[in-house]
Write a structure and sequence with these properties.
It contains ten helices and 17 strands. The protein has about 350 residues and is of the alpha/beta class. It is globular and about 60 Å long. The structure holds 1,4-dihydronicotinamide adenine dinucleotide (NAI) and alpha-L-sorbopyranose. InterPro entries: Gfo/Idh/MocA-like_OxRdtase_N, Gfo/Idh/MocA_oxidrdct_glycsds, GFO_IDH_MocA-like_dom, NAD(P)-bd_dom_sf.
């Protein structure tokens, strides 16, 4: 492998651009860009110094080290499988696949090939999230009540449309499969507790969307239990007016409670029995990276992506960065998504999650 990790980006929408920028920030090099058409590939390649447009087959045949898959969900399984079979390390966007069977297939293949295979659960990379994780890990009695929400409004209008709305491209669960899995991944990452059973109710704000009957949920309510004995509750919505990308959690214990808000990610609220504190991000504290800017110079979504890609590339070089979300995390998310769908279809029946 050459000094700088050589990457290809597949998919040129929102995530294609974010990944391209993150590769450069992580000191990798975007060599190839593949899109749904040569024109789309050229458009992004022209915006990334040194990148060339290509087709997916050329990406597979090339000598790039890592393939970043940033396409709609239903394409992930086939593309990630082919990239692993071609000997590439793979970053595959979430959800890793649209079924447990496909996600398990990819996790198994990644393990057999020994390639680095990661999924961008990037909210893990906020310094304030890492701080909450280390404080909970070092605390006396852990949280017993885990609650929060992930609310958006980009699908609030009945006219708003996207490939995610279509189950054949986005998957059978839309709001949970798109954003609920971020919250669950973050909860399990921060608390170290895993969901063992859940019950879910799913619903739509609009029975008809963009002229078609809505086949995927706009939101839902999930109750859960964990292997650490905690109780939990999560509300998700993509039709909550005014909420842009509000991933919020409160993990409450008798000694301390921890609150994080993705729209204000520089601080972590820590409630205590005698006093409450708001901890500003500080690179000297756990979770701060050597290259991070000093507190007061806000860390954002792009920086989380850059740190995620930097850690993925460190793994490609043989290092073992802490907290890297691998295809196993993608498989876990697929299992949770299937449990949510099964529970909701059975009138919110308690549904167990396989370990
Ligand atoms: P998008 O719709 O903006 O972009 C998808 C791109 O894929 C489009 O440019 C489309 O032309 C291209 N495409 C479609 N078929 C293709 C093919 N056969 N070959 C190459 N390119 C093809 O969607 P967005 O928001 O970028 O989402 C992409 C993926 O990233 C999804 O799986 C989504 O769930 C995930 N995502 C993850 C985020 C995160 O925080 N980790 C944030 C946003 C999206
Ligand atoms: C749209 O809901 C979206 O872009 C998701 O696909 C991402 O995963 C989330 O991080 C932000 O919102």
């Amino acid at each position: 492998m050459s000094q700088r990790v050589q990457a290809a980006i597949v998919g040129t929408g929102f995530m294609g651009s974010v990944h391209a920028r993150a590769v450069t920030a992580a000191k990798g090099r975007v060599r190839l860009v593949a899109g749904s058409s040569p024109g789309r590939a050229r458009e992004l390649a022209e915006a990334v110094p040194g990148a060339e447009p290509a087709g997916f087959e050329e990406v597979l045949a090339s000598d790039v080290d890592v393939v970043h898959i940033c396409t709609p969900n239903h394409l992930h399984h086939d593309m990630a499988r082919r990239a692993l079979e071609a000997g590439k390390h793979v970053v595959c966007e979430k959800p890793l696949a649209v079924s447990v069977r496909e996600a398990a297939d990819l996790a198994g293949l990644a393990a057999r090939t020994g390639r680095v295979a990661t999924v961008p659960f990037v909210y893990r990379f906020y310094a304030s999230v890492r701080l909450a994780r280390s404080l909970i890990g070092a605390g006396d009695r852990g949280p017993w009540l885990l609650h929060g929400s992930y609310l958006q409004d980009w699908l609030a209008s009945p006219d708003a449309d996207n490939w995610r709305v279509d189950a054949s491209r986005g998957g059978g669960s839309r709001a949970f499969g798109d954003i609920g899995i971020h919250w669950c991944d973050l909860m399990e990452f921060v608390t170290g507790q895993r969901i063992t059973a859940l019950q879910a109710m799913l619903g739509t704000a609009h029975p008809v969307r963009a002229g078609r009957p809505s086949a995927t949920e706009d939101g839902g309510v999930v109750s859960f239990r964990t292997d650490g004995g905690a109780l939990g509750s999560l509300v998700i919505s993509q039709a909550s007016a005014g909420r842009k990308n509000r991933l919020w959690f409160s993990f409450d214990g008798p000694d301390a409670s921890y609150v994080f808000d993705q729209e204000n990610p520089e601080s972590l609220w820590v409630g205590g029995p005698d006093a409450n504190r708001t901890l500003a991000r500080d690179p000297a504290r756990p979770g701060g990276r050597p290259q991070a800017l000093p507190a007061g110079h806000p860390q954002g979504y792009h920086e989380c992506f850059a740190d995620f890609v930097a850690d993925t590339y460190a793994a490609v070089r043989g290092e073992t960065p802490d907290g890297l979300p691998t295809f196993d995390a993608g498989l876990r998310a697929a299992r949770l998504t299937q449990a949510v769908l099964d529970s909701a279809a059975a009138d919110a029946t308690w549904t167990e999650i396989p370990a």
